[in-house]
Design brief:
- By secondary structure, the protein is of the alpha/beta class.
- The protein is about 35% helix and about 15% strand.
- It has a seven-stranded parallel sheet, sandwiched between helices. The protein has a three-stranded mixed sheet with strand order 13-15-17. Strands 1-2 form a two-stranded antiparallel ribbon.
- Helix 10 packs parallel to helix 12, helix 10 crosses helix 14 and helix 12 packs across helix 14.
- The chain is globular, with a radius of gyration of 22 Å.
- It starts with a strand and ends in a 28-residue tail after the last helix.
- The protein binds sulfoquinovose-uridine-C1,5'-diphosphate.
- Belongs to the NAD(P)-dependent epimerase/dehydratase family.
């Protein structure tokens, strides 16, 4: 088997001499190559191969899930077969935890991923707090521990032929789409990252919609949106839609969108494309407008160190609460941006996996575009800082906070009240942020604190200073 990464085609990795090779890279890949990568940035990262550039559909295993038959499968032909779920972005923070959870729950799972999240780390000089195994070792370990197979398709969904081959080969009943560039700061580094983010996210999702139309009309799309699509309006935030009476007439309309980064805007564009295709083609879709996720452990990732999830603490990919716990562990003051009144919806990663499972188990109807607000509690940045300070002192950590000039353009004191009842109505049992969870997250951060590169903690990406000039990685 030839492991390779073509230096000029970084997001397409050929992992086998599979017959399923498909065409040269798409526009997104070309852009990505030209703008973001140099050959030297890949040195030592992956092996190269002399074969022509192409993406391949790679099945990590051809063994069907038979060693541990799901309860719903039996020799009786009338019994339902396990549902097939394609997890796009299944090597990332939320995607990996979700893929394992669904596999454990006896869904037949495949992961589609171009592994670019790992490449971002190499480009920016970042590293997860936790050491993480390769996707191949992760999947092998899962198989060894549970007998369950997860198929792997490595390639870029912006390359439609790759996606089409994966679709035809796996025949999913549901697609869970995590496969987007998900960092707001990354999208605000420079023009090239802004363009990459919107191209990658919008075209990737558009391709998924076309693949469903063409190869799996009944397939349910579960798409990860963001609470950031709504911004921070001075009225209550509804779940996707708002009923408005205007000049005596009433209609239920998409809730107004006021995203505040090129990343968040990419999700707004996705939502519009999905809504349109539900109407036009009868696609069934659920947009999960997720809040900020925290935590690292799920039942499945806890089973072995090779199943461990990543935990980002840097200023580009790290998110508020996770960052604060790591900062507390290494004695860095908590980085409160601006006044710290920024309020968002938050959820435990154990609830992310639960919410996705609930959405899959209760699919949208044909032509329906459902929107669920996926978070369990609201906190301001100052409230998070206080909670971490208190939890830290119990562990003997002297936690301080600092005010950092806000690198973003966002309201720092505002009204925020977002509905989030639909997932609860379908059975979500939340894990609320508790002292014990904070203790365990802090202890986890302390366990790995020697791996922290404190230079990555302070923000260096400015919403106002973004320009067309490609930003140096060492600036
Ligand atoms: O050290 C920090 C980091 C963040 N913040 C503030 O905390 C808030 C949340 O920022 P974040 O970095 O935790 O999250 P964000 O950039 O909004 O993005 C994350 O959370 C989004 C959900 S939401 O925030 O839009 O609801 C997801 O869509 C994204 O994929 C995920 O990266 C912002 O007001 C930010 O200014 C600080 O004060 N200090």
């Amino acid at each position: 088997m030839a492991h390779l990464l073509s230096a000029s085609c970084p997001s397409v990795i050929s992992l086998s001499s599979s017959k399923n090779s498909v065409k040269p890279f798409g526009l997104g890949q070309i852009f990505f190559n030209a703008q973001l990568l140099s050959r030297s940035s890949l040195k030592g990262l992956l092996f190269q191969d002399k074969k022509p550039r192409r993406s391949c559909v790679f099945r990590a295993t051809a063994v069907p899930i038979t060693q541990q038959a799901p309860p719903e499968t039996s020799t009786d032909n009338s019994s339902p077969k396990p549902k097939r779920v394609m997890v796009i972005g299944g090597d990332g923070y939320c995607g990996w935890a979700t893929a394992l959870h669904l596999s454990k729950k006896n869904y037949q799972v495949c992961i589609v991923d171009n592994l670019v999240r790992r490449l971002f780390d190499h480009q920016l000089g970042l590293e997860s707090l936790t050491p993480i195994a390769s996707i191949h070792d992760r999947i092998s370990r899962w198989k060894a521990l549970t007998g369950k197979s997860i198929e792997l398709y490595v390639g870029d969904i912006c390359d439609f032929e790759f996606l089409a081959e994966s679709f035809k080969s796996f025949e999913p009943d549901s697609v869970v789409h995590f496969g987007e560039q998900r960092s707001a700061p990354y999208s605000m580094i420079d023009r090239s990252r802004a363009v990459f983010t919107q191209h990658n996210n919008v075209i990737g999702t558009l391709n998924v919609l076309f693949a469903i139309k063409e190869f799996g009309e009944e397939c349910h799309l579960v798409k990860l949106g963001t609470m950031g699509e709504y911004g921070t309006p001075n009225i209550d935030i509804e779940e996707g839609y708002i009923t408005i009476t205007h000049n005596g007439r009433t209609d239920t309309l998409p809730y107004p969108k006021q995203a505040s980064s090129f990343y968040h805007l990419s999700k707004v564009h996705d939502s519009h494309n999905i809504a349109f295709t539900c109407k036009a083609w009868g696609i069934r879709a659920t947009d999960l407008n997720q809040g900020v996720v925290y935590g690292v452990k799920t039942d499945e990732t806890e089973m072995h160190e090779e199943l461990r999830n990543r935990l980002d603490y840097d200023a580009v990919f790290g998110t508020a609460l996770n960052r604060f716990c790591v900062q507390a562990a290494v004695g860095h003051p908590l980085t409160v941006y601006g006044k710290g009144g920024q309020t968002r919806g938050y959820l435990d990663i154990r609830d992310t996996v639960q919410c996705v499972e609930i959405a899959i188990a209760n699919p949208a109807k044909a032509g329906e575009f459902r929107v669920f607000n996926q978070f369990t509690e609201q906190f301001s940045v100052n409230e998070l800082a206080s909670l971490v300070t208190k939890a830290g002192s119990k562990l003997g950590l002297d936690v301080k906070k600092m005010t950092v000039p806000n690198p973003r353009v966002e309201a720092e004191e505002h009204y925020y009240n977002a509905k989030h009842t639909k997932l609860m109505e379908l059975g979500l049992e939340p894990h609320y942020l508790s002292e014990s969870l904070l203790d365990s997250l802090l202890n986890f951060a302390v366990q790995f604190k020697d791996r922290v590169d404190t230079k990555q903690i302070m923000p260096s990406v400015s919403w106002k200073k973004i320009g067309v000039k490609t930003k140096s990685m060492t600036a």
